[in-house]
Every structure is written in structure tokens, then in C-alpha cells.
Amino acid sequence: MLRRQQTGTIMVLASATCFGSLAILAKYAYAAGLGAEQALAFRFVLAAVGMVVLTYLLGHNLLRLQRSRLLILFAMGFAGYCLQSYTYFLALRSLPASLVVLIAYIYPSLVVAAGWLFLRRAVSTRHMVALAASFVGLVLLVGGGARFELSWALVLAVASPVIYTGYILVGERVMDSVAALPASAVIISGAALAFALLAAVNHQLSLPPTATGWAVAIGLAVIPTMLAISLFLAGLPRVGAARAALLSTWEPVVTVGLAVLLLGDRMSPIQALGGILVLAAVIVVQGAQTWKPVTHID
């Protein structure tokens, strides 16, 4: 049992590391001349093919899913996941990768707040402290850099975790009777179709024009998508959903580290404090789910 948990921990941390490369690869995609829609279409179409193949190889038949569940999962990818990824990528056009990923990680606190507002779930003192820390951290992140002004990029950066919160709350209701792997395959397929259509409308449904563009596009499809999702799904049953969520906090740490090393990102002391508060809030929120008895969860 201990070895199984250790293996699962390594898998989830490796998954978080892969996910942490997403913002960096997005920056490289823009530098290579790829448009947002083009990069996202390439990423999700390749990932959808890979995930569907993997699903069938592991004995799952997507056609056996209940039709209503299948449609909801596909819609989650087509609308929710598409919008979340699109706003995230657009924000990365003009904002530092480290700032965007830290803003994105207010979503665990948003999920708690939305659960309290709309689902009448109880909020513990620990959760209240985490909520306060998360939103103070967000204010410091956005307002702590004199070079940032209120812009569409900042609006999009904040919109991404808000959309993701809705996606999670819908997914929570749907995933109670669907295995993670086929569900992910359907969701990614929905996102793939949405981005292919979006790229076509914006005249970006084309192959990367250079070898660098191909390398970055394939990297987007393989590392923070197929590999990250597969590792997470493999580690999930070994460590449990709550601990997996807590271990995934490693993702923004990877992104910030890579952004400093590879992109030259720098944060003011106030922004660094904001980032620490956001990450601390994530750990508290996820830790509350990990260490509290199940009966305390509404």
C-alpha cells in the first residue's frame, strides 16, 4: 500500500510538472508565430486523438456512455473548457506567465465560495481564512506591479479561473457515475472541435509554418495535455482525489520557476507576497479536504 501511494505521489507530481509547462510553451508558441486559436486547435485535436485511442486501449467504450452524460461531457469541453483555456491563452499574450498562472490558482477558493453561495455548502473557519488570503493575494498580484494597468488581458486572466469554477461545479455532478479516462477523452474532444471551429473562423486552421512552430505545437499537445492528464489519471486512484489536488499545487511553482529561468519574468516584492498568499490559500483549501473527515463535507 505504501509503495502504491509513493508511486501515485510521483505520478501526480510529474503530472503537475507537465501542466506547469503550459504557460511557458504558450509563450514559445506566440514567439514562433502561432496564433492562439491555431496553437489551441493543434493542442486539443492531437490530444483528443491520443486520449480516445488510450481510452479504447484500456478497455473503455465511449459509445456505451449514457447519451445524456455523453452530451453534457462534450458540452463541458466545447464550452467550459474551451472558454477557460482560451481566456488563459489570450491573457498570456501580454502578461507574464508567472502572473497569469498565479491568478488562475484562485480557483480553489472560488469553488469554495461558489459552493457556499449556490449549493448551500458549509464553509469552515479554515476555508474563510483561505478565501480571504486568496483574494488579498489576487489584489496584490494585480496591483503590486506598477507596469500593469487595468486591461483586457487582466480581465481575461481573472475570467479564466471564474469559468473554471463553473466547469468544476458542473463536472462534480456529472463525474459521479463516469470513469475519469473516458470522461476526459470526451471533454477534450469537445474542446478540440470548438477550437478547430474557432481557428477556422479566424483563418488560423493551418499547420505550423516552421520547424520551431511544429516542435512547440507538438509539445503543447503531448506534455501539458496528453502526458499530464494520463499521469494524473494514473496517480489519482493511488493517492485519492483530495491528496491529488493538494499535490497539484506544485504546478504554479513549476510555472513560476520556469518563467523566471527561461522567460526572465520578475515580480515585485508585493506581487511575490500575493503569489505566496494565493498558494497558501490553495494548500489550506485542498488540505481541508484531505485531512477533514468525509462526514464534514456537505
Task: Describe the protein.
- The protein has 13 helices and no strands.
- It is mostly helical and 298 residues long.
- The protein has one domain (2-296).
- Helix 7 (125-143) packs antiparallel against helix 13 (269-291).
- The longest helix is centred in the C-terminal third of the chain and has 29 residues, at 211-239.
- Residues 290-298 have low confidence and may be disordered.
Précis, in short:
With 298 residues, the chain is mainly α. The chain contains 13 helices and no strands.
How is this fold's topology laid out?
Elements (H helix, E strand, L loop, with lengths): L1 H19 L1 H10 L4 H22 L9 H25 L5 H8 L2 H12 L6 H19 L8 H23 L5 H22 L9 H29 L1 H7 L2 H14 L5 H23 L7
Helix pairs in contact: 1-10, 1-12, 2-10, 3-9, 3-10, 4-8, 4-9, 5-8, 5-12, 6-7, 6-8, 6-13, 7-13, 10-11, 11-13
Helix/strand order, N-terminal first: HHHHHHHHHHHHH
What's the Cα radius of gyration?
19 Å
pLDDT < 50 runs, ≥5 residues: 290-298
Strand content: under 5%
- Tertiary shape: globular
Structural class: mainly alpha
Features:
single chain; about 300 residues; globular
